[in-house]
Amino acid sequence: MFYRPADGHGLPHNPFNALITPRPIAWVSTRDSEGRENLAPYSFFNAVAYTPPQVMFTNTGAKSDREGGKDSVSIIRETGVFCINIVSRALIDAMNASAEPLPREVDEFTHAGLERAECTSIPCSRVAAAPAALECRVTQIVPLLGRDNSMVIGEVTGIYIDDACLIDGRFAYETFTPLGRLGYHDYAYVTEPFTLNRPGQT
């Protein structure tokens, strides 16, 4: 089949997200100027540069009690910092609990039963049980085509890695089993990583 998105797809469910898979999940933690904390997952997320290291995630919705996006983006506009927590298989239920559309004053760490740890390079909490976390300072918030769509780009100013996830100096996926987002309500675990050298590499 072929379809133009503007004309509709004619299927029972939108296939767009299912075509771009698996996608990493940015589990974004923030703290507002009054000390209230927020935690929410975003599945439009990736690294965008090595030097300096930079990442992005995209907000694609709004809340009735916030202007300019969901809680995460509103707080990032206010404070200029955020932390991306890497989601492991063990944390899938807590991650899903934090996706619930809660009032702005509700702390998702508490709601999801998560222990928090203080970030080192920014004033923010991270998920203590996460295998890794990227502490970021925002560099751009880019408006995107469409209502309530915006891309947050940040420079990574600090990186936490759980020592238990390091084997022979390598961040070992098998120690925590990464989680990826597929389409619809579907997810996937990375359980069989393999090495493939590019042509000319040894």
From TrEMBL:
It comes from the Bacteria. Pfam families: Flavin_Reduct (PF01613). One of its GO terms (molecular function) is oxidoreductase activity, acting on the CH-NH group of donors, NAD or NADP as acceptor. Residues 18-173 form the Flavin reductase like domain. SUPFAM superfamilies: FMN-binding split barrel (SSF50475). InterPro entries: Flavin_Rdtase-like_dom, Split_barrel_FMN-bd. PANTHER family: BLR2425 PROTEIN (PTHR43812), FLAVIN REDUCTASE LIKE DOMAIN-CONTAINING PROTEIN (PTHR43812:SF2). This is Flavin reductase. The lineage of its organism: Bacteria, Pseudomonadati, Pseudomonadota, Alphaproteobacteria, Rhodobacterales.
